[in-house]
Write a structure and sequence with these properties.
This protein has 257 residues and is an all-beta fold. It contains one helix and 24 strands.
């Protein structure tokens, strides 16, 4: 067992992420030596937290799991973490300010609000989510909801049993590749003025598959939804597969080039 009074070296480790980050230089890295629950954390600088081959946990109730309030040019990387709400956990990972945030090989589950919420007010922010499971959250699995224009790339996301698999607010741009957005209230939703491109993905068994005019879908499965396309008339590139939807709805079409 670690102790936050320690210097956080491998031979004298800290107990919590909060204890370790105060002793880690900006742009440094925190590693986990053993499996365990390492507590909620607010990140205010460039940092990498990597629990490779150990899988560190953050278990919280009544608060957010991880808050990111770093500088507008700072880079934050989260790898191999399980972030779980207990009862009244609010948001799994909330991004308030940062230059770029990468969330890779993580599990974010059982929060009453969003699993991952990008709520940045600074423009030009980047979010990258790769090989991550987001499930059983009361809001969107992944919500790109910044007040300024930010860009997100999602690859290998498994977003299940959330209110929304993925959501984007006005002015935000999201690219989704090789992901599964199934068994949600809505698979993919975008406010007016958002841009979402979905490629080679599955949007299955939702109440609504896709919802929003700024959504473009190619080479994807949109199957067994109550309604495949609901409002705003999303665009299909004509390479999608639609089977078993109770209602298809309406898609615009775009020519292949």
């Amino acid at each position: 067992m670690g102790d936050d009074a320690n210097p956080c070296s491998r031979t004298a480790p800290c107990k919590t992420f909060a204890g370790a980050i105060s002793k880690t230089a900006a742009a440094g890295e925190i590693n986990c030596l053993d499996p365990g629950g390492f507590g909620a954390l607010t990140i205010t600088k460039s940092i990498t937290i990597n629990c490779h081959e150990v899988f560190g946990s953050v278990l919280v109730s009544g608060t957010n799991g991880l808050n990111i309030s770093a500088g507008a040019a700072d880079k934050v990387v989260l790898r191999n973490l399980q972030i779980q709400g207990i009862g009244t956990g609010l948001v799994g990972v909330k991004i308030n300010t940062a230059g770029s945030v990468s969330i890779e090989d993580c599990v974010v589950t059982q929060f009453t609000q969003q699993g991952i919420l990008d709520a940045r007010t600074n423009a030009g922010g980047k979010l990258y989510v790769k090989n991550t499971l987001v499930s059983l959250n009361g809001g969107a699995g992944v919500s790109v909801a910044g007040a300024a224009t930010n860009n997100a790339t999602v690859e290998g996301l498994y977003s299940y049993n959330n209110a929304f698999g993925l959501a984007a607010a006005t002015g935000n741009n999201v690219t989704v590749e090789r992901s599964d957005l199934s068994n949600n209230g809505t698979g993919v939703t975008g406010d007016t003025g958002s841009q979402i491109t979905v490629n080679s993905s599955a949007i299955n068994s939702n109440a609504t598959g896709v919802n929003g005019g700024g959504i473009r879908v190619a080479d994807s499965d949109i199957n067994f939804n109550t309604t495949a396309a609901y409002a705003g008339t999303p665009t299909s590139f004509g390479t999608n597969r639609l089977v078993g939807n109770a209602a298809v709805g309406a898609f615009n079409t775009a020519a292949q080039q």
